[in-house]
Amino acid sequence: MNVAERSSLLFRRQYIYGLEIDGFSTWNHLRLPNGYTLVVHPDLDCTQVQRDEKTLILLGYMLDPYAPEANNQGILASLCQDAEDQNRFLERLDSIAGRFILFVFSNQSHFVVTDATGLRQVFYHQTPQGVLWLAAQPGLLQQQFNFQYSAEAQSFLQSPAIVNSHEPWWPGTSTPFAEVRHLLPNHVLDLHSGEVRRFWPVKPLVRQEFHQGAEKSADLLRRIMRAANQRFDLAMALTAGYDSRIVFAACREFVTDLHLFSMIYHKLTPQSSDIRVAAQLAEIAQVPHQVFACDQAMDEDFAYLYTHNLEKSYQSYGHIVYGRFLHLDQKKVVVKSVVNEIARCFYYRTGVYPYKINTDLLCRISKLGDHPFVHNQLAAWLEDAASAEKLGYKLLDLYYWENRNANWQAMSQLEFDLAHEEFTPFDHRELLTTMLGVNHQYRCMPKNRFQRELVRCSWPELDAIPYNPTSKVIRKPFYEGPWMNAARWIKYHLITR
Predict the structure, then answer these.
(1) Residues in contact with 57: Cβ distance below 8 Å, sequence separation at least 6, in sequence order
(2) Terminal C-alpha separation, the chain
(3) Which of 247, 313, 419, 455 could make an S-S bridge to 324, C-beta 3.0–4.6 Å?
(4) Burial 177-203 (b: 16+ CB within 10 A, else e)
(5) What is the pLDDT of residue 327?
(6) Residue 65: exposed, middle, or buried by beta-carbon count in 10 A (0-12, 13-18, 19+)?
(7) Full-prediction pTM beyond 0.90?
(8) Are 327 and 290 in contact (CB under 8 A)?
(9) 101 pLDDT exceeds 60?
(10) Which residue, 242, 185, 191, is CA-closest to 410?
(11) Under a CB-based contact definition with an 8 Å cutoff, are residues 358 and 334 in contact?
């Protein structure tokens, strides 16, 4: 890899927004309606649409499951009609899939918003003079302003829970720098004032009957994957789990277009169930299945790129990124079957929901420890999210959505941007709310009835292959009902509290 090649890959698919930005001579520079400059890496798609006094600028891509042939330009043109009414505009985004950041400039407002689960990220800093800066990751802002780790962040990084963690993440809106904050999904950032407000949810959760919810969710997923297949040359990672099989089943009508692969890393071997089951699924589909190793050391050039590509406290998967970089065509868009954990009762896996959600519980289940830094961040999030519970949403589902997913999974995807663009079909607010509308007793372990029904709705034969056959089965409590709820009430008020 020569100097020019290495330079072209540094900060791949990233961006920075500010008043005057030096450097980045090979990147695309856009002058925005508010006088600011947006500088975008050449490998990050940038689409602009202007209608009357409205301007929409998209970083990344959008997919419309109800118009699978529509491109970024067409989708933005359709959205532009509602740009004057911010609330109606944001509601329109519920039906849009993709991984994107969207800047909106109209007579009424200037704001920025992310995709449904925040997989394309916005980090922001406001100077004492009120100038707003945005970037794909905190390291780009740190380079501009020479920020130093805050004392609270350093203490957090040195806490036992983080020192012993293989995949730490930053809670709430926090970053290593006191001056930089993270825009969480379901929130909008005002580009005039720098204020952030929650815009979703605003309506009660619609309850779904089991089969109806499965049919509707499976249909939406098939539509999303159809749109993705028309837009991209897709490569899909297969495992023995539920999530990738749900997505694979949704691709039945065009499965021969997919490039299927599995990766060997950490404790996986060619004999692991993730590899063996993936091969079985590919055999049913009569599609080739590639297996490659992601456990080799990075070479000098790639190690330089990886360690400089994003702020060091977010680096976790270098050797896996390198393995994919080596073995998979970089022009392919990788289907990543994540985010569905939001609807799989991740923090109450057997369906037994805690009597009371408080900050101490969030600290404990996050495995980030009870450090004051974590406690303060999650307390602020809990106060902000309280309104969602009144609308019928379970706070632990939203907690995974806006904290673990948006801070851990989203940063993982930024790491893999160095190798490939990624696409997550579950990153769709309408799909997620449809699934959350199904009673959580169907969505939880150990039976995962709803997940299996999603597979059966699209490709019944795939459900005959065991899921995670070597994993330990989590046992559900022997009894669940009013008396158990009474016991939880007593435990909370007489013991926990």
Answers:
(1) 30, 32, 38, 46, 47, 48, 102, 103, 105
(2) 59
(3) 419
(4) bebbbbbbbbbbbebeebebebbbbee
(5) 97
(6) buried
(7) yes
(8) yes
(9) yes
(10) 185
(11) no
